Amino acid sequence: MFLIFNNVLVLSVFGISQCGQSFWDKMELFLLIIGWFFRTDYSQIAIDLFQSSFKGHSIHRRI
Prior knowledge:
By secondary structure, the chain is mainly α. The protein has one domain. Helices cover 75% and strands 0% of the residues. It is built from four helices and no strands. Helix 1 (2-18) runs antiparallel to helix 2 (23-37). Residues 58-63 have low confidence and may be disordered.
């Protein structure tokens, strides 16, 4: 469980540092991070990570 949280945190920080578009883009990612930590369905974290978290951000286009 700790490994899952650690990976999500690292990817989230990477996403925030790489997506330098605007303050609101960073806030959106930050709120998604907060949402991840309060969820109980850990499979949903991976789904959100690849489908919705970086949609429209520069990090999404680099992958």
